[in-house]
Each structure stands twice: as C-alpha cells, then as structure tokens.
Amino acid sequence: MWRENSVDLKLNRFYEMSARAVLCLLIIAILLAIVAGVGCTLYDLRLVFQEDFHGASKQIMVDLLTVLAIIEVLRTALAYSTEGRVKVTYIIDTVIVTVLTEVMAFWYKDIDWQEVAMTIALVLSLALIRIVAVRFSPAGARREL
After folding, report:
1. 120-139 pLDDT, tens per residue?
2. What is the pTM of this model?
3. What's the CA gap between 39 and 45, in Å, rounded?
4. Are the CB atoms for 109 and 140 separated by under 8 Å?
5. At what angle do helices 88-106 and 53-83 cross, to 10 degrees?
6. What are phi and psi of 45, to 5 degrees?
7. How many whole angstroms from its chain centre is CA 74?
C-alpha cells in the first residue's frame, strides 16, 4: 500500500514538472508570437503611405486584434501556470476577440445577412456563456462557503 502511494506521488511529481516545462516553452513561444505580431503591425504602418487609407487601416486593425487574441492566449497559459487550471473566461475572451476580428473584416466585404445574423448570435451566446462562467466560477463558489 505504501509503495503504491510512493509510486503515485513520484508519477504525479514527474507529470507536474513535465507540464511546467512544456508550459514554459509554450509561454516563450507565445511571447515570441506577440513580438512578431507587433513587428508585423509596425511594418504594416507603411501601408498608410503606400495604399489607400481604408485598406491600410483594415490591415492594421486586423493585425492589432490578432495580437490581442494572442495576448488572451498568453493570459490563459499564465493562469494555468499559476492556478493549475484553465480559466474559461480567458478562453471565451480569446474567442470573442477573434470573432470581432472577423466582424471587422465584414466591414470591407459584401456579406449576406445570414452570416451577419450567425455572427451576432455567436457573439451574444459567447457573452452569455462568459456571464454564466463568471457568475458560477469555482472561485466564487469558494468565497460563498
């Protein structure tokens, strides 16, 4: 019995150390992606002088929203690193930012009303899920006890 607990404890420690090592590599990769995204956004500023302002602003806005989505992914990874669990609100925030990037692209395209309606329904359902996730979060349940 004691030997089984010792093996389980060693496996648990190995898993935690391995997960932390992989998570550290993931965080470094995310940080590099953020730096690359900021670099691409700064590089796309040249479009303001080379192309029409409308097209340049579209590209810059999409770049900025993509960087913000990557930052939300970083927040998710850091929350898992510190708390040992994934926060649903961070994931929903990431998806909302990504969907809003697509909505920004709608401004520059001819989109059918069905696609706009589906996107609105998606954003509203994500907002509702986020509200429910915040209202019934495990941290909130612990505070009530």
Report:
1. 899 899 989 888 888 887 76
2. 0.71
3. 10
4. no
5. 170
6. -60, -25
7. 7
